[in-house]
Amino acid sequence: MIRLVLADDETLIRDAVAALLALEDDLDVVAVAGDGPAAVDAVVRHRPDVAVLDLQMPGADGIAVAEEVGRREPGCRVVIVTGHGRPGHLKKALSAGVRGFLPKTAPATVLADAVRQVAAGGRYVDPELAADAIAAGDSPLTAREADVLELAADGAPVDEIAERAALAPGTVRNYLSSAVAKLGVTNRHEAARVARGQGWL
Fold this sequence. Notes:
The protein has 201 residues and is an alpha/beta fold. It has 2 domains: 2-135, Rossmann fold (3-Layer(aba) Sandwich), CATH 3.40.50.2300; 143-197, Arc Repressor Mutant, subunit A. Helix content is 54%, strand content 15%. It has helices at residues 11-22, 36-46, 62-72, 87-95, 108-119, 127-136, 143-152, 158-165, 169-183, 188-197; strands at residues 2-7, 27-33, 50-54, 77-82, 100-103, 124-125. It has a 6-stranded parallel beta sheet with strand order 2-1-3-4-5-6, sandwiched between helices. α9 (169-183) crosses α10. The longest helix is centred in the C-terminal third of the chain and has 15 residues, at 169-183. The radius of gyration is 18 Å and the shape is globular.
């Protein structure tokens, strides 16, 4: 029996996925969580074989949770499901030790198979997302530059970005300036647009 923790901040989706996975004879959802910190707590408490995490969650996103799980429960493998399947997210997830990555549009049977594959020590990456990541090429941005640029993409002021990224405002300005220079554009909004278009955010 493969023991799972499932984390998603949307209750309806979380409950539906848990119910669908529970229909599989060899899968057992031992706990669910609605945010990043609760997901880490559930993994530490229940020590599952696989954690299925939403990419975007309050408190800590799926990639940050995967990194924490890797430190605290290295025996637990991580699968990320996302409605935001950008190549940059896939690359960051794989760098964080995530073993499975697929879109929320995938059928429950595909998710169940991905969980089995990952539990057995393999990997599962959605073929379309993998192809997009290869086509996007390597980003010139550092991980921190990409994080800050993504926070800036919706027009947030520097102070707000600094607070959300737990950085000093001056450090945020430096990262944004560096990203603008590397992408050969004139401002951070253009930089975010170019980086998104290339699949680097």
